[in-house]
Design brief:
By secondary structure, the protein is mainly beta. It is built from 5 helices and 38 strands. The protein is about 5% helix and about 50% strand.
Length: about 750
């Protein structure tokens, strides 16, 4: 194994000696040596090595991945804490704008609106493949980054890493941990639309081997571009560590976040490119123009409340310098309930005094309700070790995981909302509140997983790697329906049963095994650059992580229990180059992902597993320092996403996969102009996207591409205080951030806003 490529921290002196030896062999080094002849005996010659780039962490913070990012045979993007600070980012969705082609592009299906971090990546919903410290994070909430050290994005199947997951990637948020130093970092921010936010990060060493850390956050704001949309959240994350710097380490962490938000159900797509009136009676809409993007079509009753509680205990033991075992136990609960009124359906002029007056026409409103509790309990054991068998070096990571995930979706009474005026919506109405009716849905999945990865150093320049993971899962699901309702899925009440009584309609279970694996090879062309190939298989069972199983093989559902697991196969070939003393990482990759066993709807409305999808393209990325003063992170991807087989084509009839921009670009750069002044600028491009297919008539089948630019100015007053001004959407671009499947509604992008932050350090 090439130990020079993966040196431990205690080898810094050896690295310095090696660097000095190399310098000494150069003409510059020889000149320095000649000049050193004039030095007096006893003088010390100091050779300084540059610190690693704060924009390009060299390793994953997840101990499961022991190889450097530059030697990982997959597309990996790490968004560091410094990038988050420089950009003024405070939530996961905004952090992921640093990854090309990844974003919240999907606004929900029909009358149901997406909430929280509804992330799409390479043509697939990745919302159920979000992890915190390698443990699946549950719930459809927005995740704050006040307790996040860095965000790691892996593109391509991650089943061998985490078990069942989205077919095109995973997102792992790394939590802040106590350190053996003492300091205080605090920030206070004000911004557009009465944005107010404060954070506090206190780290205190206790003795020589223990430390405590406390992160606190509070935020309250109005949405700058949307009437009546407000967000309020508070968080606290205490942690303590024992045995730091020793062979036995114990970490105890707790996270509590509460949110009280006004949800946004979007606005009508009238007037957008591709829109046309659905019928002759409403043809006046063709020339009526767009609605005001600040319009709020909800009600005074709308709300979105959530509470997250997470407790984690991790123990680590070093058997020696090359072998470590870790055990992590986590319990987490996310409770969320909301009432969100979204526009849905077509315009109506029926019953209007002047049917030709578009200003009096109305639009259908549909209340979305949820009252859910998600819990997860997991115990994970991981062993990493480096050793030789003969001349072949090994870098292994192996482990076992036991996980129980439960969900209770409480049934609530139906709520109706009156139609709303299209151009002058009135939200000053009350439609009531949520009341549980006993028609609950309950799901539980128990998973046992075992995995092993190994990187074999065959020669100084050539490596092979591979890994396999076996998962056994058992899911139980039951649900009830309140009888006496109307519409799709309505259930008639049995004789003598009061209307609204819960009637159990589903009670089923599913067990199965998943085998996920990966294999790759890497060759070092030089000490700075390599080329690699990789192939991976990833699977997830019917229903994914949503507990949405239907009865046996008899129900007409896309999540029938007799369906085979969805399977994704990804091939990737790429190259990675570390330049400027390993402070700048350049990557390029070609990829293809084929997804099979996709459930597709037949012409008669039933479902079968004949669907196939393909996403292929290439990706370029850069992260790190060009000079000591100049930092950069960015990337570009071109991805062709298509449906190979299946009826679920895009609305325009093409085979394009919805919510996947063919072209996407992102770049953020910062320059330290003087010791006290820094300037930053960024731009991102999201290309045109197709939307999903359904029976909607006249709604846009696509969204247009757009550019957005951001800027930053930083000023250091002294060593304890600096000011930072961030401006977002610098040129006030009007764009569609997300659109729903039917195309009736969309979420407009945020207009130009500013954020002024004071950062304090002690």
């Amino acid at each position: 194994m090439d130990n020079n490529r993966n040196l431990p921290f205690n080898s810094f002196s050896s690295l310095t000696f090696f660097t000095g030896l190399c310098i000494g062999l150069t003409p510059v080094g020889q000149a320095v040596a000649a000049n050193s002849k004039d030095q007096k005996p006893g003088d010390t010659l100091v050779v300084e090595a540059q610190a690693p780039s704060l924009y390009a962490p060299q390793k994953s913070a997840d101990p499961k991945f022991s190889r450097p990012i530059a030697d990982t045979t997959r597309t990996v993007t790490v968004i560091s804490d410094q990038v988050l600070k420089d950009q003024g980012v405070n939530n996961l969705t905004d952090a992921l704008k640093n990854v090309p082609g990844v974003g919240a592009f999907f606004a929900g299906e029909n009358g149901s609106s997406s909430t929280g971090d509804a992330i799409y990546m390479r043509g697939a919903d990745t919302s159920n493949s979000i992890y915190i410290d390698g443990v699946r994070d549950i719930g459809s909430v927005s995740r704050d980054t006040f307790n996040t050290e860095q965000v790691e994005v892996i593109k391509g199947p991650s089943g061998s890493d985490y078990g069942r997951s989205a077919p095109t990637g995973s997102i792992n948020m790394i939590s802040k941990q106590p350190r053996l130093d003492s300091g205080i970092d605090a920030s206070a921010s004000i911004g557009s639309a009465w944005f107010r936010r404060g954070t506090l990060d206190i780290n205190e060493a206790i003795g020589e081997t223990s430390a405590v850390r406390l992160n606190v956050m509070g935020e309250k704001t109005h949405d700058a571009g949307r009437d009546k949309v407000q967000n309020e959240r508070y968080g606290v994350a205490p942690s303590v560590a024992f045995g730091l710097g020793t062979e036995n380490r114990l970490y105890l962490n707790y996270l509590h976040v509460t949110q009280h938000n006004t949800p946004d159900g979007g606005i009508p797509t009238i007037g957008l490119p591709g829109y046309s009136a659905p019928n002759a009676a409403t043809s006046a809409l063709n020339g009526s123009g767009k609605v005001n993007t600040s319009n709020f079509y909800g009600t005074d009753s709308d709300y979105d409340d959530s509470t997250t509680d997470t407790a984690t205990m991790r123990f680590e033991h070093d058997f020696n310098d090359t072998t470590t075992i870790r055990n992590t136990t986590r319990w987490s609960r996310v409770k969320q309930d909301y009432l969100m009124t979204a526009v849905m359906g077509g315009a109506s002029n029926i019953g209007m005094p002047d049917p030709n007056n578009v200003g009096s026409w109305t639009w259908t409103r549909t209340p979305n309700t949820k009252d859910v509790s998600n819990k997860i309990l997991t115990n994970q054991t991981n062993l990493t070790s480096k050793f030789y068998t003969g001349a072949v070096g090994h870098d292994i990571s192996t482990g076992v995981e036991f996980t129980r995930e439960t969900q209770t979706n409480y049934g609530v009474n139906a709520i109706t909302a009156p139609p709303v005026n299209i151009y002058s919506p009135n939200s000053n109405i009350n439609v009531g509140s949520l009341h549980r009716n006993g028609a609950n849905a309950n799901g539980q999945t128990d998973t046992f997983g075992i995995y092993a990865f190994d990187t074999l150093q065959i020669t100084h320049d050539f490596e092979l790697n591979g890994g396999i993971r076996l998962d056994n899962y058992h899911t139980e699901y039951d649900s009830s329906t309140a009888c006496g309702g109307s519409g799709r899925g309505a259930l008639t009440c049995p004789t003598g049963t009061p209307k609204g009584s819960p009637i159990k309609t589903v009670d089923t279970a599913k067990s199965g095994n998943l085998v996920n694996w990966k294999a790759g090879a890497l060759y070092h062309l030089t000490e700075q650059g390599n080329i690699y190939v990789n192939y991976a298989i990833s699977q997830q069972p019917p229903g994914g992580s949503n507990f949405a199983l239907a009865q046996g093989g008899t129900g007409n559902s896309a999540n029938r229990t007799d369906f085979k697991p969805q399977k994704a196969k990804t091939s990737e070939v790429g190259t990675k180059w570390e330049l400027f003393d390993k402070r700048l990482l350049l990557t390029a990759a070609l990829f293809r992902t084929d997804i099979e066993n996709e459930v597709a709807e037949n012409d008669d409305g039933t479902y079968s597993q004949y669907g196939k999808k393909r996403v292929e393209g290439y990706e370029l990325s850069v992260a790190g320092n060009i000079t000591p003063e100049w930092q950069v992170i960015g990337g570009y991807t071109q991805q062709k996403a298509s449906i190979q087989e299946g009826a679920n084509v895009a609305q325009d009839g093409s085979s394009a996969l919805p919510y996947t921009p063919e072209h996407a670009f992102t770049l953020w750069t910062q320059y330290q102009a003087t010791s006290d002044i820094s300037v930053g600028a960024g731009a991102r491009y999201v290309g045109s996207m197709h939307r999903g297919s359904d029976g909607a008539v006249g709604t846009p089948s696509y969204t247009e591409g757009y550019w957005v630019a951001d800027a930053k100015l930083g000023y250091r007053i002294n060593s304890n205080l600096d000011l930072q001004l961030n401006v977002y959407n610098l040129f006030d671009t009007d764009y569609v951030a997300s659109i729903n499947k039917s195309g009736y509604r969309y979420h407009p992008g945020e207009p130009r806003t500013f954020l002024l932050t004071a950062n304090v350090h002690f």
